[in-house]
Write a structure and sequence with these properties.
The protein is of the alpha+beta class and 273 residues long. Helix content is 33%, strand content 26%.
Length: 273
């Protein structure tokens, strides 16, 4: 049962407040962040701010929705009964923060069963927050987000790229996909913070986003933001793509774009994959 009707307004307000509170902490303490550990052989790191921001976000969600399940980047699964699952990435871009690069975000999503119904992305550096509710569009401080133009840019599209931490450097498919994008696109952005890629796409400042075996925690919130801004989500083979968080990461490879750009990229990644 929804806690406040089908528009998820209460959930949206709580998520926005939590993301912005965590973002304020990240912004204030950015220059003093330090690395706690390297998580795995991919080199992905955890910094102290991951845990500090996570504590704030989880505290707000558990206070307002104590019966809901939460899956968080650092804490893992905080299980509960029911079909509502909050997804929390308290610091998307930890590797950037660890080297002093101010490119990071806070992401919060809510899924009903396996379907994303709410997504919030906050960028502490600019103080901007973007949010989407399924069926109600994507919005920021200036109003509805327009998404990218459907036409194919003459010099080629600007495309964000992401791959999951489990993808090894020599993965044949990943190498082929990145090579095809570098060859056929104007620019390929590897941001180390997928939520920034999704927000850029939803705002229409880049043309597309391509992911290979993407991480599940931040995918639903970001993908919903883009989809509600008019972006089409497809698998690498062109079938409709559902941005879920569970299951094997082989099911989280996608192309997100519109119109001619989508068709163009599906041809190129299809040939490469």
């Amino acid at each position: 049962m929804l806690s406040n009707g089908p528009d998820f307004e209460r959930e949206r307000r709580v998520a926005v407040a939590a993301a912005e509170e965590a973002g304020g902490l990240l912004r204030r303490r950015f220059g003093a962040a330090y690395c706690l550990r390297t998580k795995d052989e991919s080199g992905d790191v955890q910094v102290d701010l991951d845990l500090a921001a996570e504590t704030l976000v989880l505290g707000r969600i558990r206070r307002h929705f104590p019966d809901d399940r939460i899956l968080s980047e650092e804490a893992g699964l905080l299980d509960a009964a029911g079909e509502r699952t909050w997804l929390v990435d308290p610091l998307d871009g930890s590797n950037n923060v660890a080297i002093g690069l101010p490119a990071y975000a806070v992401g919060i999503g809510l899924c009903l069963g396996g379907t994303p119904v709410l997504g919030v992305v906050h960028e502490p550096v600019t103080g901007q927050t973007w949010h989407a509710v399924r069926g109600l569009g994507a919005h920021g401080s200036a109003g509805a987000l327009p998404g990218p133009a459907p036409g194919l840019p003459r010099p080629g599209p600007v495309v964000a790229w992401t791959q999951g931490y489990a993808v090894r450097r020599g993965d044949v498919t990943a190498v082929a996909l990145r090579g095809a994008l570098e060859l056929h696109c104007r620019r390929v952005l590897q941001l180390w913070a997928p939520l920034l890629g999704w927000s850029l796409l939803a705002r229409g400042t880049i043309d597309a986003f391509v992911g290979y075996r993407a991480e599940g925690v931040d995918l639903p919130a970001g993908a919903l933001l883009a989809a509600e801004a008019g972006v089409e989500l497809r698998t690498l083979s062109g079938a409709p793509f559902t941005p879920g968080f569970a299951g094997d990461d082989a099911g989280r490879s996608f192309v997100a774009a519109r119109g001619e750009t989508l068709a163009y990229l599906l041809r190129e990644v299809g040939a490469a994959a």
